[in-house]
Amino acid sequence: MKNKKHILIFTGGHHTSGLAVARMLQSSQTQIIWFGHRHSSWKDRSDSAEYREVTQSNIKFINLQAGKFHRTYHPLKLLRLPWGFIQSFYHLIILKINHGTQIAGIVSFGGYLAVPVVICGWLLGIKSVTHEQTLVSGWANRVISIFCSKIALSWPQSQKYFPVDKCVVVGLPLRQEILDLKPEPTQSTIYITGGKQGSHLINSVILECLPKLLKNYTIIHQTGSNSLYRDFEKSQGIKSSGYHSFEYADSQTTAKNLQQASLVISRAGAHIMAELLYFQKPSVLIPIPGGSHHEQELNAQFLEALSQAIILPQSDLNPINLLIAIDKAQKLKPKFVKFDFNGLSNFAKLIFNEFLQKNQA
Length: 361
Known about the structure:
This protein is α/β, with parallel strands linked by helices. It folds into 2 domains: 6-174 and 342-360, 3-Layer(aba) Sandwich (Rossmann fold); 177-329, Glycogen Phosphorylase B (Rossmann fold, 3-Layer(aba) Sandwich). Helices cover 39% and strands 16% of the residues. The protein contains 14 helices and 13 strands. The protein has helices at residues 15-25, 49-56, 75-78, 80-99, 114-123, 139-144, 176-179, 200-213, 231-235, 251-260, 270-279, 295-305, 319-329, 343-360; strands spanning 6-11, 30-36, 60-63, 103-108, 128-132, 150-153, 167-169, 189-193, 218-222, 243-246, 263-266, 283-285, 309-311. The strands form 2 sheets. It has a 7-stranded parallel beta sheet with strand order 3-2-1-4-5-6-7, with helices on both faces. A 6-stranded parallel beta sheet has the order 10-9-8-11-12-13, sandwiched between helices. Helix 4 packs across helix 5 (114-123) and helix 8 crosses helix 13 (319-329). It is globular, with a radius of gyration of 20 Å. The two termini are 21 Å apart.
């Protein structure tokens, strides 16, 4: 570590974008240290996709047990709120003692995990920038924005939630593996993903109606690796040449799955939304209900307006409704929309100019 001239601390809830940017900036002159969750949910002992992908990229990972306030009622989970600040302050103090001015700054990707890191960094004189991926803004980024020097946006519509003088529209950083591929027309292949950790609700319905789906489609199913539900283990008991399941996939495999699919069934997070736009894939979207400012519902409505998605509310999710939605989605003809797919290089350049350029002068 002593031969590293610059240290950037990455943190936040959208690790797909974060890791893409981190890989671009990581070099012999710049070291990335990652503050994240080793386990994705309460009582889940499986390593999260975030932890696996970050450590596989030879990036130091610091596990935080920070908590969130929004829709949290369990008293033990609420205790994680102060504990997250204590942990963040401790780790940042140690980094400051050991590395001093080598610490260039903190790069946040929003989410409750980033809040204690950014605020504690501000108290210690460490500069931060944050990235807002969604069309709206969650509470975490609204709080973080007070302590950040720059707020990078995926969408110009998000600017109204932040101080205008701090905002820079850069686009959404898509991983390079996506950008290396071009849209490819395919037939009769459905790719199912519930996000990096999978979705037990979606998995259950898929497995229930799988016999009907396999009559017409090849199914590629990312189940997630949750140790409580063990959906992946259940999926492995299905013997069919047309069904392929896995816990999670690396970026290259995910990119190929999206490229080759004729239809995608998914949640409606910011990243899958942009990737569907890039590949112009029709989709059935099942937004997570009641999220911060209903961001997934708004993402899904955006794609619906472009004739690129059929929205299936989680409350209506069952085998019959899913099969109807799939049939409707296959008839969609997606419209073209102008979107800056250079978010990866744009945001990396912003970070370089904000943190690294001055240090190299």
